Amino acid sequence: MQKDKPSRTAYKVALNVVTLGAKPGMDKILPPGIVEATEKLLLGSGAVGSRTLRWSRSRRMVSVYEAFDWMLPGQFEAFAQRKAFFELQVREGIGEGASQILVLGAGYDTMGWRLAPKFPDVYFFEIDHPATARLKTRGIEAMGQRDNLSLIAEDLGARKLEDILQTNELWDQSARTVIIAEGLVMYLAAEAVENLFCQCAEVAGKGSRIAFSYIPSGADGRLDAGRWTGLMLWLQKVAGEPWIWCIRPEELGPFLKTTGWTNTP
Description:
alpha/beta, 11 helices
């Protein structure tokens, strides 16, 4: 992302959630309350105005997203599936005894704010770049702070995760934890991704899990997002948030093993 500016990607993903709320049938996929909470967060943070929200929740905007779906077929609805997947990971992890949830590169995600009251014995941590975190904090304050939700404004590219958490008196390194990295690792260099996963293994207790999204690479080792990969890479670069990291699905197991994790299909 551009230095000292809130993430454009986080902004677009949040508006995507709002638009998905206007698409028939998505209420059966999206986590309960996510659309309403996202709207409140965006308004409360000042990231968008009421006019932008009205346009984003319109059926016309749904048609716009569907019209551009030719670049990445299924990508629009995939955001709903992705949100549902990560929330399921958190709920399952809590059911198995996790007492900490850590969301890396949280953006305008509302999962922590929505789930914190439902699981008062679980502590939710979110880490994001200060420029984005400042807006997020303003929005959360407008919505109502949660006692068991902590927003941490730190640049993971400038400071190690383990150093950030070691100075946080609320963090328990021995506790079973669910770590979420949604829409994050593709923006990092290969060495940074490996270091991040290794650090995650170090700061979480036995039985922890990490869930993440990624972009696969083709047989040539290059990022493969479909037939319009070149265009998508160019658009991301122009936006100042280029996609960098990718991995072949068959290489995930060995990669996770070297960083202290086990792949669970």
